[in-house]
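Why do we bother with a discrete structure alphabet at all? Because it lets us treat a fold like text: something you can write down, compare, and reason about line by line. To make this less abstract, here is a complete entry for F-box domain-containing protein. Read it the way you would read a sentence in a foreign language you are learning: slowly, and without expecting to understand everything at once.
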Amino acid sequence: MTDQHPFKRTTDVNKSKEVHYSPYLPPETLGEIFSFFADDDVKSLHSCLLVNKTWCESAAFILWKRPFDISSIMASSELVSVYFLFFSDEKKKSLLTSVPNGLSHLSSDRPALNYLSYLKYVDFKKVYKAVRMWLRTKTLLEPFCSEFKRRQIALTNRIVTELGRIFTAGYARLDRLSLDIRYFEYNPKDDEVDCLSWPCYPGACVSLSDLREFLCGGQFMKNRILLSMAEICKDIEILSIHESAETSPEMLAEFIKAQRRLIKFTLTNWSSEILEILSSLRKQARTLKYMELIRCIFPRNEDYTKLFRGLAECRNLQTLKLEQCQHLSTKLMKPLAEASFEKLQTFIIDTEAVSDPPTTEIKAIIQNSRESLINIGLNVNLSLYADIMETIATFCPNLLNLSVTIERDSEMQQLITLFRSCTNLVELKIPKKWKLFEVKKSLVELGTALPSTLKRIELDGLKFSHETWEEFLDMCPGSINHFAFNCFSKSIFVKIVEKYGKRYSKSIKNEEMLDQTWLPVQVTVDLNN
């Protein structure tokens, strides 16, 4: 019998081939495609898990590389149930004994996928919160008392410790690790098993050998962690250390020296000896691009002239921030003034008043940047820094972002003059340092001087009447889309911004502000184009 549909078979075959081949893209191609999903787009990636094994593994790599980061605390707590399956039989048995009613229903079989092998980023604080929430859901029927709370804290620490062991058992190869417990109620002094010491566990020599970013913060001694990691990690690119807390500066210095390509270093609240730490940066002179010191106490002894010599050798530095540091004097800053930071793009200094302010040194840093500076922050007493605005106007024609403390009309005039040379500014901030500065006519003059490129303006350090505010906005260019200012709970200031926006066919994004009977003292208003 002759086939009455000669093309049907061919079409069906082609369709079969099409259906067969399209889901089976190479894993490398799938990984590239999935990388365009937002990391927290769990819904879309979850759908990809259901296509076939290859798609499942490629999507799982993204979903499970930082699972505690893309989930809510409640959802993160369920991750603990998954990782519980990777615990040793002995540890499972021990925990089942501790919480017999809450954990008895958990499976003892390992998952089909080794989720540990996908793990790339772990944040101790988020893991600890997830475990704490997980235990709460498993012990809802337990009577609450001080003894129960004590046992729950001890059990949380045990589980977090065990998670640390499997995270560093060699299956995972972490890129980023955060052991930051600042602003967190966990107290390592109450922890008998020291669950913060993940880098000291036996498998860490493999799991942390590829680490690129390390954050460690909190009021605890970090010596053991730094000593262990100095042996393991050689390619840290981003390092953040917060709170000295009796940590040995020599150990931190040795850890820095052990790195081959440190790019970004942040040090916060360091009150111990700091000379050796900053001197160790000499080893990173070729690679270091970002340096931030926050609330550090610098020495005033005979070694102060040596303090920044190591940093001064970092010729590729692009960002230098010295914020709320003590004893930042002329002699201290001299090595930086003599350095050549020709690639410096961001320079921020926020310092207390000292008897010998580094006026000449700051000017020299700006001059030596050779027009590369585009972001400058001067949260200082400008009266002590003569001609600093003139220096910026002369040597920073490409300036895009400026933050400067203004407390006198003469300083406002210097700022106005600056805009004759810096005509590409995108953001202007006048923050508060000690007190609000009341302005009238000079604010209106500032409005006439602002460049047409300006998009954002924040005047947190100024005080003015609504009449002055209206005159100011009448003079401003129509390019501004972001305002932050002191309205002192008066809605008329916001209505004046609305009027400004209408003049340039813009509307307020947060329109509900217009109908509120009460406003905070300080407000932020954004406009739609």
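What the structure line is telling us, in plain words: Confidence is low (pLDDT under 50) at residues 1-22. Residues 177 and 214 are 5 Å apart (CA to CA).
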